[in-house]
Target: DEAD/DEAH box helicase
Amino acid sequence: MGLNPISASDSIVKKYLRYMETTFFINDKDYMKQFKKHISKPEHFAKGPYLDFSDSFELGKSINDLMAEGILSEEFQKLYINEPKLLSRSLYKHQELAIRKITDELNLVVSTGTGSGKTESFLLPIVNHLMKEKDDNNLSAGVRALVVYPMNALANDQMKRMRELFAAYPDITFGAYTGETEKDDVKGKAKYMALNNGQQPLPNEKISRNQMKDSPPQILITNYAMLEYLLLRPQDNVFFHGPHSDKWKYIVLDEAHTYTGATGIEVSMLLRRLKNTLSNNNKIKFILTSATLGDEDDNQEICDFASQLCAGAKFDTESIVRAFRYSYFNSKGSKKYPSEIYLELNNLIEENASLEKYKETITKFDSEFTSKSETVPNFLYDFIVQDNLYYEARRVLVNEPATLRNISNELSIKETELVAFVTVASKAEKDNIMLLDARYHMFVRALEGAYLTLGCHKDLSIIPREKTYVNGQEHKNYKISVCRYCGQIYIEATIEGSFLTQKKENEATEKNNFFMLIDGQNHESTDEDIIDTEEEQIYNLCGKCGKIEKANVLRSQMCHCGQAHVVKVKEPIDKKKTLKKCMSCGLQDTQGSVLRGFYLGQEAAASVIGSSLYEEIPSIHVEVLEQTHHYEDDFFGSLTSSTVSVKDVINKPTAKQLLVFSDSRQEAAYFASYFDFTYNNILRRRLFIEALKEVGEYSDEKGIEIKKAAIRLAALLEQHDIVESEISLKEAWKTILYEISSNDRNSLENLGLVSFEYQGFVAPQIGFYKGEEVQAIQRVLANSFKRDCMFDFPLAKEMLKSDKEYYTYKGLECTMSLTKIDKKNNYCKSWISNKNSNIRINYVEKTTGNNKKEINNFLEGVWQRIFLQQNQFYGGLVAKRPNEYIMDISKFKIRTPFTHKMQWYICDKCGKITVNNIKNICLAYRCEGKLTLCDFENEFANNHYRKQYLELDIFPMKVKEHTAQLSPESAKKYQEMFVKKDINVLSCSTTFEMGVDVGELETVFMKNMPPTPANYAQRAGRAGRRKDSVAYSLTFCRLSSHDLTYFNSPIKMIRGKIYPPKFKTENEKIVKRHINAAILAAFWRANTELFKDVGTFFDDDTYTCLLDFIKNLPELVKDYIEKFVPKEVVKQVKLWIEDLVHEDGILNKEYLVYKNELKELHDLKIEALSKSSAGESMGDYIKRIDFYVEKIKAENILAFLSKKNIIPKYGFPVDTVELVTSFDKGSLATNYTKTSKLRLQRDLMIAISEYAPGSEVIADGDMYTSQYIKRPTGQSKVWHQYDFGICPDKKCGHLNIKRHIAEQKEKYLQDCEICSEKVYKDNTFIIPEYGFIISPKVDKSTTKKPKKTYRGEIFYVGDKEEIIENENKEIKINNTIIKIKSTSNDELVVINTSDFYVCDTCGYAKVDEKFKEEFTNDKAGHKNPYGKPCNTKRLSKRTLGHKFKTDVAYISVRKFLDKEKALAVVYCLLEGISQYLGIERNDISGTLHYNKLDSGNWETNFILFDTVPGGAGHVRRIGEADNIKIERMLKKSLEVVKQCNCGEDSNGDSSCYSCLCNYYNQKHHDIIKRKYAIEFLEELLG
Model:
């Protein structure tokens, strides 16, 4: 039984909308009503499901036919001796064509779609070449074909196929040489047998590196990173310089579309080196394969790409092979059957019925239908090809995908019948031709916020707007957040001048403060129970104009708008980045902010959608076994004959699996933790309900004992494989404690599913309360212990701090005392009120009207005479410390509506529910609402969480990350576990985008819209790999213009234009790394004994020998380098080689770092030995130091050099840095094992934000915090630092930078380079080229979003000495002259916006936004990365920056545009040009720059640039474009902004994520408006 696309899509959307309604509770009925109305429209949030189909591939000749022609060798008969049918089976036509072209000695590009047998297209002709050699008696050892894959996983998949192919043909040898290949034969064989169920390896498979070096295989499989190593390592030279190295014939690159950007440049340079290494390079033929490389209109560009990638090899249009699709179906003579027949046929498929059943069913509808087919797929094929519905469906879908609704309307059938038809047709196959290769596509979009008009005209919108008009008058709009517990409205904003202002820039940098809307209740007093109470200020705010002033200011009126528009707001005086507790209800969040913005967090929304999809994946495989019994007897009193048919329905459980894609490694890592935590949190609550139902059957009316509930819950957690048996009871208690202390609106108690109730003293009266009120008041007062989980329970002593963090605030234990003794101890609460009030005082006051003194006396009586008593029926206080108590949890019991008669009440104001009712007074602090009977069927009918807790399918979910952050070993382990179904969900970046074996998946979830249709096709193609299955792809469209643009036009993503990759090889930094690699390879070939590890490499004698070798480089090596280096940069080679051995060169830099690390560790060891001599226990610590020293010395030299950017680093950008473990004693002991399994490397442009001190990084389920900027080695060495200042001229704004030499009292920096205005220093930025070091503390990742500092805008500075100008022209469009210029090696600077205070001695750094002085004194002191106290107390104010050179395109107009208008144009051009040219949006970026002309006028430059340092050739295409293409780019840009409807009445006086806004330009969201770009482009284009 497969996933039903209609019910699945409906359910996913329904749950998503239900989640939004449940999540965003607004404590204002008017606004809430409007919000519900807005989100009640599914069409606003979802599109689809779309149905897409493609025909089967057209068949060509068979291998027998090609042997008869003499194209293929007769040896193929031996190859397929065990499967002779394969010889006569037709190949696909494109496979046949590929074989012919490769045989004709053409270089080839095979671009034929997913599942098209691309491997056979190149493998069969390679095998044929080897067979022909055998025919000529020339077959010997030595590589003939090198097959390069971008990933080991793909190489491993290929090896499985080769084993099957060559099992009966030992003459051809093959082997995979990757990082996973063992060195010696014994280990190689053991590993092979372990991975292949004990099978012996084939005699012709080389299973170890030694085997391959002794006798190189004829077909060698590897990846490009290993190919680099093979070229570098002297012992591997046998492949290129050995006795059989002149046999090379083919170089195959699979998944060729991945070779774009930096990776494309790297691999292109690698292939240039390889080709020029081989002695017979003139005979080499290149074969590229890809599912997605572009259509026929792009033939020339595909050839250019292939030639550039493959060392200049010749490719022309004859070199391209595309798929031929079978579409020769003839509808003549077809019949029209009732469409409901497919519902019956689909039922038979689900029952796994016999062929006879299918015949019986069809005969009911058509008694004349006949078929000689003997299998169900063949029989269905025969039936469907003569059904008119098939041809009508083809007609509707032939040009583009369509929604099921549109198709069913077009065909006049029901959607359910259409889905049944697709399912049945997908099973139909005959002669290797499938009738329908179908795929479903569903898209869901994010919510963009809630925007309010305040005051007398209350209005709410979910479309972004800054203002609205009421009766022609302008009203200010504010984006709101709400308390996640009580729904109180907050405005996150700042006061600027006399106005309350919201800026998205402040939101991004967390500079906003929090203003709570006061709803007329008394908000003056503070609840003393709240941890970390704060002072607050009340303001009057005009909802019309935004004017704000303190409420205690005596003034007749603060503006002229009128008192009807004025509302009151409250602000905490102590301004914090995160609001931990609500100023209304006083509740707090243990994980993060108490506020919830109406932007659905990407992870939260994706988690809900992902779990909804996960629920829809079938977990049962149904089989129906039918047996027929014939009887002839007198059982019924006379001789009768009868036949009885018996059906047995067998439900076989099957594992659920889901592949989740994210574009970013950090997003994938965070989602893995978030999804795992949130899903399993709901699942725990679901199991808790089940446990209570089971235990509740045997409980009395007072309730269920919590201990018994914990034991049963532990059993269920274990039974359903949620946790291991050893920790099941502890996890059960954690679940219950989380629940009993939860203030979440969606906790089990707040949704009326459980009630935790204190078992009180039975008496006719207690103080002011009589009758039923006696028990109610005791329960209400005892609830004070629930709030901060102040309980003693059986496993309390076993709970670690990490366990306590699950159910308490920061893992801190709170206590209660009768009166507060220590005022500084916020974690001990006072039972009676000291100064202000508390929730107990407030409730007793509301229910009795007594004064505070009388209430305190009453509370003291309850404490002394009930809670403090030691009695088996009541009491319960347990002394934690003198005068500090917690409550014995056994004094509480649980009642549930499933097993107990219960009456619930709901507050008509705050919406809180309770079983405790005294005089209909609400229990919530300071709430003046009244309790009424709660009708759950109406009040909570659509509550998302209540339904989940009651209805969620109980199925375990194990989630893991799979990204480039993991070591290859960890990544491979998780892949294998996923294939074996030991992992349910894999959250991956692009690592699984290609044709990796991920088992038989039917569903894929994309957490964001992929960058291009090519990426989408690859990701969607991971599902539906089984021939008879229909794939389902679900995409969440987050808040970005890219995502929402394609959400509005999904077909452009499903079947959009795919562009060939483009890059340029003359990237200086990458070319340098390949030159370095060539030199090192030559050095090691000449000195093989020196190739070992890092310790050997940096040995003083070895290092001196290397420097001498480089300074006296052999002519042969120089010639080799000049051959493979691109001609554009060959003149600079000599200078680059000299730089390599310079004192400040990259080699010497790393040599000094290595020596210093060893010295520091040596000093630590001496110190530890001294302490040990004095009697301190230091043995383990000393062993760790020795281990680490050995680890540093023994590190693989090639991995080290790659990591340090000395030799090529494939799969990573150009300028990369690491985040590494500190050498602190605790860190060495606990974190090294974890971090050694990671590869935390980032491009510097991203690292100055994501890896900056104070930023948090998630990897493999853990959260790491950066603490240090790694210093250059040696006290005299310093970071590269630059003073900078922005020109104060408002028309200029140029960033002026100057190398930092020393601190200057004078703030003057220099005269502006553009306009000569005096520029003053703003700060100094450090270029953190040595990387960063983490804090010793590592936390488990859950739902907390990793913090990071923010990257500022990118400034164009221009390196006037080194700029290479490619294009410079003027074009005229509609009487307007615009200048187009394209440059290379142009310079830009990006700067982090945060202020850091940095220790120049050890690199320790902390973020401080408030302190603005140049220096600060670190009075508390800090430790260095080695865990020792640092002697330096002075910290210098700094920030982080990165200078980089890349390709730049200027689009200039000779007039001045205000910054806000010009920025709108820049972002519009980026969106439009990237779409028009098929460039991934993240591969290019933009900024503004102004020039002052000689005439004194200003020129506005829209600067677009490649984000890859060094450039990848993307924006160069703008300079190369002719006038027509330039005009089309501008028109496409205009289309981007005109298709949007943001702004009041769609007037464009705003911008949103559907047009110009995205994550990277958040600081400009307030000023960029769609209308500015429309006005500029319409004027330009006329």
Observations:
- The mean pLDDT is 88.
- The chain is about 35% helix and 20% strand.
- The radius of gyration is 36 Å.
- Residues 1068-1208 form one domain.
